[in-house]
Amino acid sequence: MLKVSGLDVSYGGLHALTGVSLEVREGEFVTIIGPNGAGKTTLMKAISGSVPMAGGHVENRGRDIRTFPPHARTDLGIAHVPEGRKVFPSLTVLENLELGSYRALARRRRAEGLETVFALFPVLQKRRHQMAGSLSGGEQQMLALARGLMAQPDLLLLDEPSQGLGPRLVESVFEAIAGIRRARRLTILLVEQRVVEALELCDRGYVLEAGRVVLQGDRDALLSDPRVQSAYLGV
Ligand code: ATP
Which residue from 7, 10, 11, 50 has its CB within 8 A of the most atoms of ligand 1, so it is best to mutate? Predict the structure, then answer.
């Protein structure tokens, strides 16, 4: 579904990503883990088209999408839920959700989309006429996830959905992601610093350090890898 090869991204003179290659197959749940500043957010932005690539290839279902602007990638079914719960605070929950469905296909299926996200996140239905800015941090994260789903994506890019949340809310966000996965066998690429939770949910993962992929493997191989255990799991 998604194939990234030899991806380079620079900010001025700083090489944020160097020769990054990864693949996400149809229906797979792939996780990227790595420390602060490893380049995880940059990788998501390069895939969704919001930072320019300095080199390499990005293909979606065999199609070269390097020159596609972000909205054209959304039209192809790639939805990016950015880090930091970027909801529109002075719009209602419902208005935020509707903004997620501007893609033509999603617009036609808006009612069905709302039904799905309200079933997954009943709290959003309860608060649908409230300003998004009045929701708690956890609820805003649910709204950001739900807005991503409203685009009826084939590939969901999730950038650190647990960021800035307390432990109880982190748990409910991961439960929500597992719920999304069960409800629709979506292809998911998740970036996380919560390594245990992220690896437990995924099929496969990549470890990104200083802008390079240093390790990759399926869930069990990564969870039992001594380098992952000592650097990320505190074993
Ligand atoms: P975090 O977990 O802290 O979000 P990350 O793994 O997502 O980190 P990135 O945010 O992709 O990492 O950053 C990778 C590198 O690029 C870092 O050194 C960061 O300081 C730098 N960087 C990120 N965005 C910019 C920017 N807009 N301009 C300049 N440098 C940037």
Answer: 11
